[in-house]
Specification:
The protein is built from eight helices and four strands; from the N terminus they run βααααββααααβ. It has about 220 residues and is α+β, with helices and mostly antiparallel strands. Strands 2-3-1-4 form a four-stranded antiparallel β-sheet.
Length: about 220
């Protein structure tokens, strides 16, 4: 079996239960869409993704007050933009789109060891994955020349892949009309700008220790499956 490298975070029990229940109902005879459930799933997912990609690494790396504020501002901006997209789209999705959403949700998850928990994940290209691995190795060995630029490049690449899998792919799959596509496009642009902004402002100013901890944290998000 061919394995790929994924960027993954652990789903909370609540998110897994919400998602799994929705998937099972959609696959076994649901007769009407469930807009409130879709909205609940997606807002919970956004909260957990922002925590995994922004808030936890900021805390883990020991960022200063100003840097922490930049990270939290970016997370808040992304949260507001995505919740607007979710709120408008969930109410307009028909049963067929709910079923397609269930299939999509199932495609971006897989179980952890011994099914002790579930991951939410998306695949990344081998070259990008290797860049993240090499970066963590270099910083652990004390080699920091060019490492900040590499982490910026890596995180921007991960951001682009996340936007593809978490925004563009489901938008295409669900066949949104022109109005919802425009709303979603604004959300994607806002998320990209906020993500790039915090990456470009925070990463170049990390100390060597903070850089090492950040590189190791993001490497730990790589999972082979």
């Amino acid at each position: 079996m061919t394995t790929k490298t994924y960027v993954a975070f652990r789903s909370s029990a609540r998110l897994h239960q919400l998602t799994d229940g929705f998937i099972q109902r959609m696959r076994h005879g649901a007769r009407e869409p469930e807009p409130r459930v879709v909205e609940d799933i997606m807002t919970t997912f956004i909260d957990e993704a922002l925590d995994a990609f922004f808030l936890t690494p900021a805390s883990y790396s020991g960022l200063g007050t100003t840097q922490q504020r930049l990270v939290r501002l970016a997370a808040d901006t992304i949260s507001r933009a995505t919740r607007l997209v979710i709120g408008r789209s969930a109410r307009k999705m028909d049963l067929a789109q709910n079923r397609a959403a269930a299939d999509y949700m199932d495609s971006i998850r897989f179980p952890g060891p011994q099914h002790a928990f579930w991951y939410v994940a998306f695949p990344i290209e081998p070259g990008l994955a290797e860049r993240g691995r090499r970066l963590a190795e270099r910083t652990e060995e004390g080699h920091f020349e060019g490492a900040r630029e590499d982490l910026v490049h890596y995180l921007r690449g991960v951001t682009d892949q996340a936007l593809h899998w978490y925004f563009n792919k489901p938008i295409d799959l669900l066949g949104f009309g022109p109005i919802l596509r425009r709303v979603a496009s604004v959300g994607v642009d806002t998320t990209r700008k906020a993500s790039y902004g915090v990456i470009n402002k925070v990463i170049p100013n990390l100390s060597d220790e903070q850089l090492t901890q950040s590189a190791l944290y993001y490497l730990d998000m790589q999972v082979r499956h």
